[in-house]
Design a protein that fits this description.
Blueprint (H helix, E strand, L loop, with lengths): L2 E3 L11 E3 L13 E4 L7 H15 L6 H20 L5 H6 L41
Antiparallel strand pairs: 1-2, 2-3
């Protein structure tokens, strides 16, 4: 139904924009362009440093934990949605018991790989819409 670009090759500038079709060319005269972040974009890495320095100078709390956790949860939602072919809600992801890296704490340098090929020699792959409760 549409498309969006949320990050470029180096993430900064992101050249963030939304489109009403799959035509995501950069041209500002693209008739399918709905919105684009005004340019030039501020450097997000510099903004993080500015916020940290301001907190230090003003002796105020500065904590990015919530933002980091929520960003990680959002990426897990995207991965699960793509791999299962389903819409995944925030609440579903928070309550999910699925483990993306089972037994990662038991991995050793000389141990077996965490994902092994089947008897046919092929590695498992996601099957969106067929396997809805796991990745593969």
């Amino acid at each position: 139904k549409g498309a969006a670009v949320i990050s470029g090759g180096s993430h900064s500038p992101g050249r963030v924009r939304t489109f009403k079709s799959q035509n995501i060319t950069m041209a500002r005269n693209n008739p399918d362009l709905i919105w684009a972040f005004p340019q030039p974009e501020p450097d997000p890495y510099q903004l993080e440093w500015d916020d940290l320095m301001e907190a230090i100078r003003n002796d105020t709390p500065y904590n990015e934990v919530t933002r980091g956790v929520e960003a990680s949860l959002a990426t897990s939602m995207g991965r699960m949605a793509a791999h299962t072919g389903q819409e995944i809600t925030w609440e579903q992801m928070v309550a999910s018991t699925h483990e993306f890296a089972p037994e990662v704490d038991k991995l050793t340098k000389d141990g077996p790989a965490p994902v092994m090929p089947g008897t046919d020699g092929k590695y498992p792959v996601p099957e969106p819409g067929r396997k809805k409760d796991r990745e593969y």
